[in-house]
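Task card 7
Instruction: Convert sequence to structure tokens.
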Amino acid sequence: NYSVRIGPTGVVCGDWSGVPNFSDQVRQVNRKGIAAWNCSNVHFESDGEIYGFEGEAVYWFSLSSNAKNVYMRAKKLRDCRFNGLNVNARNAFENIKIEGSDTNNTYHGIESSAGDVLDCTDHGSFKAIYAGQGAGGKSRKISGNKSFDCKEIPYSIVYNKNFEGYGRIHNVIITDNHAFDPVNGFIAAADIDGIQIHGNTCTRLKGGRFLQVTGCIDGAVTNNFNSSPAAGSTHIYRAENT
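Output:
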């Protein structure tokens, strides 16, 4: 069992500053704030600040055949060249959750290929939540999250159709998420069987598509709200095979 808690006055800081980007994989892979590999039973909570890294502020990754029992909550993740919080499982998983985390000025606020992403908040990242790849993406919920001033698509849930031979992702619920003043698009989802997109709200969409759902089957898209969009945005979603 691994349990880490950083109190409200704790600080973990690097020396990076600037505009987040995806341009230097070598430095981004090797320079992280807090990281763990190939382990289960991880409980991480932070009320302190973690910032200033070329890679992720907080990172967990597993190649295990059955990664399980991972909980992540970090209240102050900011100013990272790559992602604020990254949770990735290549294979099956059980009981993985990101909950109540706050990110600010990162490339992806949260990148996740497994588990639930609940009640998180992002300010000014290029994507608030990016979910994709990894066979651990099935049977997950992305719910109750908020995004402010996102530079690209706040909620981008895109899976490879047959990631490393594991087949398509099944049963993803995207519900009750909110975005305020996103620059380009609101929710994009692709290549998921059994997708549910309900009760999400976008306010003052500046451009792009409100909802884009492509290559999904056996799902439903209902009761999503596009409030005060800019004239140049596309107000209707594009749904193929849904």
